[in-house]
Design brief:
Number of strands: 0
Shape: elongated
Oligomer: single chain
Helix content: over 70%
Order of helices and strands: HHHH
Number of domains: 1
Distance between the termini: 59 Å
Radius of gyration: 20 Å
Strand content: under 5%
CATH superfamily: Fumarate reductase/succinate dehydrogenase, transmembrane subunit
Structural class: mainly alpha
CATH topology: 3 helical TM bundles of succinate and fumarate reductases
């Protein structure tokens, strides 16, 4: 096949639509949750070994790094939940047009940011 179409290899000039960015963020939040499970399981293991290790774990949770990790996990969970609901609605036939897809992406981003702020207020 001899294609004479132009090929754009400069990734900085490619402009994706808003729903594409929300889809990419949905995948990224899923990866964050997958990696975060390791931290959560480590914390569960520490908290179940002994009373001393439970106290060590609760003391560790007061550090800024642990709070940042908890905030990141809650932010990822909130965004992934909102984007998942959007995808379920699209599977049901709601919001499949181009304009409603753009509106759904905007709503997803706004709700994701709102949940992230709420998670930050709750953690700190």
């Amino acid at each position: 096949m001899n294609s004479k179409r132009p090929v754009n290899l400069d990734l900085t000039t490619i402009r994706l639509p808003l729903p594409a960015y929300t889809s990419i963020l949905h995948r990224v939040s899923g990866v964050i949750l997958f990696v975060g499970i390791a931290f959560l399981l480590y914390g569960l293991d520490l908290s179940l070994d002994s009373k001393a290790e439970f106290e060590q774990f609760t003391e560790c949770l007061t550090s800024p790094i642990a709070k940042f990790i908890a905030w990141g996990l809650l932010t990822g969970l909130g965004y992934h939940f909102v984007a998942g609901i959007k995808h379920l609605l699209m599977d049901a036939g709601i919001g499949e047009s181009k304009e409603s897809g753009k509106t759904g992406a905007q709503v997803t981003l706004v709700l994701g940011v709102a949940l992230s702020i709420l998670a930050g207020v709750w953690v700190w």
